[in-house]
Design a protein that fits this description.
This protein is of the alpha/beta class and about 300 residues long. The protein is about 40% helix and about 15% strand. A seven-stranded mixed β-sheet has the order 3-2-1-4-5-9-8, sandwiched between helices. The model has no long low-confidence stretch (mean pLDDT about 90).
């Protein structure tokens, strides 16, 4: 089911994230996660005639929400390649970049893609349906130790080894193809009072692995660091601790590990300064209107 731009994805922290860019009317900006176009439309609304916005999304469904505006360019690609694309378009520096990470509400609500355990669907989980490995491929082909690592690192599941063992035993008799197959194998492993939360972590872990999300995020942030001109802003919305830790480290030290370097005199050398030292979270009203926003955190950095 294809949705309109208005219902495809409800933008989170819309005003706060775009305000954080401190937009210059004639500036060049990137929205790395176009989705339904909510953040992109807000940015365009603040640009003048000489400004330009490049918006990235690898999903064909998102491209259908693209806009007709001479100040706008849609790039159907993973945001990890943003430096290559900016080189292609002849852009050496940008004034700001916004990223709304995680999965759009459209993906969770699409009953055919396997992103949610709410629906019986093939275990696909690819954001780019044109290529790549599906969640079913991983579940049926990965070694037990590899599965356990995926679930522990990306899902932070304490029972990762037990879950991986159950999956491997189950696939020995029948291939795991659908969300229902996975639930049948693992459902009894979670305490009833925490079942939904734990299942969400399991699906999150598989989705991150399928789409190489953490690697893509690192590459995108490195690209942003190299492209942002002095005074340019980085505005990033995260939804789980892995993303947030990486973005926090990057703004602090300019690298994913958060390793701060110092010059000969002991002065900290960092490419960014934190604009909002205290992380910004959605208001109670926004969380009530949009449940997806409840785990959202906004971090803003300025290129030095």
């Amino acid at each position: 089911m294809i949705k309109t731009a208005e219902t495809y994805h409800v933008p989170v922290l819309l005003r706060e994230s775009v305000d954080g860019l401190a937009i210059k009317p004639d500036g060049v900006y990137i929205d790395t996660t176009f989705g339904g176009g909510g953040h992109s439309r807000e940015i365009l609304g603040r640009l003048g005639k000489k400004g330009h916005l490049f918006s990235f999304d690898q999903d064909a469904d998102a491209e259908r929400n693209s806009m007709s505006d001479e100040r706008f360019t849609f790039v159907r690609s993973n945001f990890r390649y943003l430096k290559n694309w900016m080189r292609y378009y002849g852009i050496a520096q940008i004034d700001g970049l916004l990223a709304d990470l995680g999965v759009s509400s459209h993906h969770f609500d699409d009953e055919t893609r396997g992103f949610s355990f709410r629906y019986e669907a093939p275990l696909d989980m690819r954001m780019n349906k044109r290529a790549g490995t599906t969640a079913a491929n991983i579940l049926n082909e990965a070694e037990e130790s590899q599965l356990a690592d995926i679930l522990y690192i990306y899902g932070e599941l304490k029972q990762a080894r037990r879950i991986a063992s159950a999956i491997v035993k189950g696939r020995a008799t029948r291939r795991i193809e659908t969300t229902g197959d996975l639930l049948q194998l693992t459902g009894d492993l979670f305490p009833r009072e925490h079942e939904k939360k734990e299942m969400a972590k399991l699906f999150q872990a598989l989705r991150i692995e399928v789409n190489h999300e953490m690697d893509a995020l690192r590459e995108m942030l490195n690209g942003a660091r190299d492209l942002l001109r002095p005074g340019g802003r980085l505005s990033v919305i995260t939804y789980h601790s892995l993303e947030d830790r990486l973005v926090k480290n990057f703004i602090k030290a300019g690298n994913a590990e958060g390793k701060v370097s110092q010059d000969f005199f002991g002065r900290i050398e960092a490419p960014f300064r934190a604009v909002n030292n205290k992380v910004t979270t959605p208001s109670a009203d926004e969380q009530a209107r949009n449940p997806r926003s409840r785990s959202a955190k906004l971090r803003i950095g300025e290129r030095i």
